[in-house]
Amino acid sequence: MTQTESNSCHPLSSAQNGVLLAHALDPISPQFNIGQYVSIQGRIDPVLFERAVSLAAQEADTLRVRLIEKDGIYRQTVDPLFELSMPFWDLSSESDPEATAV
User: Domain total for the chain?
Assistant: First the structure.
């Protein structure tokens, strides 16, 4: 049993069940994919920024929810062992940083 599985699990919400059903009906649909970037003006310390985002995720349980399937039934749990890997790209030297980011 993994650490996540040893935590208490809870039923999915109606919305979560709907998303799972929609994905099962069309698994290659990008309907629920979200992509974005953040434009930060000025200097940034990538290590401190990643630490701040990681702290926010540790404090907001909704950012650490994991779905677990057992015997065809999905349940949700909050992952206490959240690990963040945040790539950092400095595009400030590009001729058009925003176009490069997009």
Answer: 1
Distance of CA 96 to the CA centre of its chain: 28
**pTM, full prediction:** 0.58
Rounded to whole angstroms, how far apart are CA atoms 14 and 19?
Answer: 9
Q: Which is nearest to 64 in space by CA: 46, 83, 90?
A: 83
- Cβ burial of 20 (10 Å; 0-12, 13-18, 19+) is middle
34 in a structural domain: no
- Which secondary-structure segment (H or E) carries 75? strand 73-78
The tens digit of pLDDT for each residue in 15-54 reads 999 999 998 899 999 988 887 777 788 888 999 999 998 8
User: How many whole angstroms separate alpha carbon 25 and alpha carbon 48?
Assistant: 41
Domain that holds residue 21: 3-27+42-89
